[in-house]
């Protein structure tokens, strides 16, 4: 059975992007691996919302070509896109089925709405949180308000350079 892992950076005040998806606050932390290569070797599937996918496209060459990539969208027509399968099914049912398959784990790349949906459904198994020492005031929250309490176990905590911290959690 596959595990869904959310690896994501967040500001101290809980935002994964600023207004209009701004990620410039992450620029000072680019260029260092921070364990990414080890992490990416554990996954064979990515999940992302359409807004996150559109951002990934701005980075140049699609970075997950050797993985199975699902983009959740409400758009009725989707463009032909190499390396990507667009999904209009409900994320909860789709990911529930996906987790039952054999293989490596699943990376929930993000999108605040997709994060919240899968968290609410209890489908995120691990959270690998990179806490960035900046407050941005407003933007896209790590998670949207939820009606369910969920408990997590801290499995690792590391201080990184430039004041950043990595916190790893597993669902209790």
Automatic annotation (TrEMBL):
Superkingdom in the source lineage: Bacteria
GO annotation, biological process: riboflavin biosynthetic process
InterPro entries attached to this UniProt entry: DHFR-like_dom_sf, RibDG_C, Riboflavin_Biosynth_HTPR
Pfam family, one: RibD_C
MF annotations from Gene Ontology: 5-amino-6-(5-phosphoribosylamino)uracil reductase activity
Span of domain Bacterial bifunctional deaminase-reductase C-terminal: 3-164
The protein, known as: Dihydrofolate reductase
Organism: Fibrisoma montanum
Classification of source organism: Bacteria, Pseudomonadati, Bacteroidota, Cytophagia, Cytophagales
């Amino acid at each position: 059975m596959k595990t869904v892992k959310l690896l994501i950076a967040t500001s101290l005040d809980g935002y994964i992007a600023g207004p209009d998806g701004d990620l410039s606050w992450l620029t000072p932390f680019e260029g260092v691996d921070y364990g990414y290569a080890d992490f990416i070797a554990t996954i064979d599937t990515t999940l992302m919302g359409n807004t996150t996918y559109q951002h990934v496209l701005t980075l140049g060459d699609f970075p997950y070509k050797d993985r199975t990539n699902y983009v959740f969208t409400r758009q009725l027509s989707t463009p032909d896109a190499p390396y990507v399968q667009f999904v209009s099914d409900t994320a909860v049912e789709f990911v529930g089925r996906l987790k039952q398959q054999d293989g490596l784990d699943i990376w929930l790349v993000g999108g605040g709405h997709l994060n919240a949906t899968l968290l609410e459904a209890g489908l995120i198994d691990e959270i690998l949180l990179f806490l960035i020492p900046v407050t941005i005031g407003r933007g896209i929250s790590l998670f949207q308000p939820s009606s369910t309490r969920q408990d997590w176990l801290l499995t690792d905590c590391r201080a990184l350079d430039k004041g950043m911290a990595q916190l790893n959690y597993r669902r209790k």
